[in-house]
Amino acid sequence: WSQAGTTPSPVYECTATASGSTIYLVDGIYDDASDEGHVFSAELSASGKLGPWKSLGPLPSGQDAFYSNAWIANDTSATLYVMDARLGPGNDIATLHVATSPTLGTWSEDNWLPGFLGHPQYAFTGAYVYVLGGYDATEAGLTILPAVHGAPIETSAKVGAAFSTEALPTPVGFGQAVAVDDWIFV
Predict the structure, then answer these.
(1) In angstroms, what CA-CA distances link 102 with 55, 61, 65, 95?
(2) Of 95, 60, 69, which is closest to residue 177 (Cα–Cα)?
(3) Following CA atoms 88, 40, 176, 76 in sequence, which dihedral angle do they give, to the nearest 10 degrees?
(4) CB 82 within 8 A of CB 26
(5) 130 close to 185: Cβ distance less than 8 angstroms
(6) What is the dihedral of CA 52, 56, 62, 63, to 10 degrees?
(7) Phi and psi dihedrals of 49, rounded to 5?
């Protein structure tokens, strides 16, 4: 391992994704609080070094993307999706998405899965988004869940109707998931 660069300021609970040689850093809890609530990008050189970070703009007012998942759709729209569970009106899991070129533009939000899930795993196949596990907060405490929910990504960059699918063999939370070909790894 070798150091490729540094973030705009020290950060944790951040979300990152890449498209080609561009790395996107979405929100996080920074040492310099003025960096919070923003999306940054940096180019990765052929030698594996990061160029300077540039701010692409803020997240929607009042939103954060701590411990989330993000991806760039590999289509002509170069859409940046950020999945995040949040507590708020309706206690929904929300999809935030935006065209990333040449600037962020306008964010839109799609509250597609009713009910709060804390720290689930997210996976994106290109045609579908999946939310795996997480916890449900009740007065009795936290219950880690094995449930898996999915929804199709519609051509309008909106999420379609949610569905439940086969549960995980073991309840999981606070992890990561990724879709590769026809597989999801948790």
Answers:
(1) 12, 21, 22, 21
(2) 69
(3) 100
(4) yes
(5) no
(6) -80
(7) -105, 140
Amino acid at 131: V
pLDDT, tens digit (0-9, with 9 covering 90-100), for 67-80:
788 888 765 666 77
The helix/strand count (H/E) of the chain reads as 0, 18
Say how many C-beta atoms besides its own lie within 10 A of residue 93's C-beta. Answer: 24
Which amino acid belongs to residue 18? A
Q: Answer for the pair 66, 81: CB distance below 8 angstroms, yes or no.
A: no
Q: Which two tokens stand for residue 83?
A: 């999945």
Mean of pLDDT values over 121-148: 85
The whole-angstrom distance between residue 171's C-alpha and the CA centroid of its chain comes to 21
Task: State pTM to two decimals.
Answer: 0.82
Strand order of the β-sheet with 69-72 is: 69-72, 79-85, 92-99, 108-114
